[in-house]
Amino acid sequence: MLRERLLSAAVGIPAVIAILFLDGIPALQNIPLLLLAAGVAAMGAEEVGVLLHRRGYAPPKWLGASLGPLPPLVLYFHGARPAYSDAILVVLTLTIVFLVLMAFLTLIADVVKRSWMALRDFALVVAGATYVGGALGLLLLLRYLRYDTSPPWGMWPVLLVFLCTWAMDAAAFLTGSRWGRHRLCPSVSPAKSVEGAVSGLLASIVISGVFLTLATHPRHPLLAAAAIGLALGVAGEAGDLLESRFKRWVGAKDSGDVIPGHGGVLDRFDSLLLAAPVLYLILRLYRG
Known about the structure:
Blueprint: H1 2-23, H2 31-55, H3 63-67, H4 70-79, H5 86-114, H6 116-143, H7 156-179, E1 183-185, E2 189-193, H8 194-214, H9 222-250, H10 265-269, H11 272-286
Antiparallel strand pairs: 1-2
Helix pairs in contact: 1-2, 2-4, 2-6, 4-5, 4-6, 5-6, 6-11, 7-8, 7-9, 7-11, 8-9, 9-11
């Protein structure tokens, strides 16, 4: 598993960083980050629907894939600066209309077939897609927090949340696997340890402290940078536990098998789903 994790990281981390730097090029109008957020949201929301099937619910399995991208697309319209081109406006409008129409027609067909149970299952998928897609859509709002930086460094808030969650996950896994003795929350995730959780928090604090005091403009005081790292670490571990609780509820070990060594998209991005909203809130309040 460690070898598979390392191989996945060797491919995935450079790919994400490359997308973020491309997104920093003004001419691309934040399309790279939009595609990343919408694509991951589609896969993650689809996994929610598949996991619900294991619990006995029966929403159409592709329904989540149509609902997950909607929050990032809507938030792109809401916050994009500078204004997107007319061609982008037309394409995204048609995409949103198509996804909403397909979801609506699927709901009608399912209601005709299964009556009120279809409404219940549809509501569950909507809730999951809103959580996954909404959290990933907040990466776009983080990107729109404009700072006096030259391209492509305007994307540093998004890069920060990725770096902190990656460092937290890696430190927690390695420390917990080697030295973990005390279970953190055995009823939710038996494999997670207190030692791993503490090392994950420390890793997030260190990464945030170094990044915000040395690599960003404006610079942040060391204490503030460490506090942001702590908040991101706590939020990331809470997101991890929340996804573990959902998997235990449906009786699954992983949310999928698309990422070798990690499982599904939700398994890889669960920490980010709470860390991104927390960082957005902190930076909005911090800037006044």
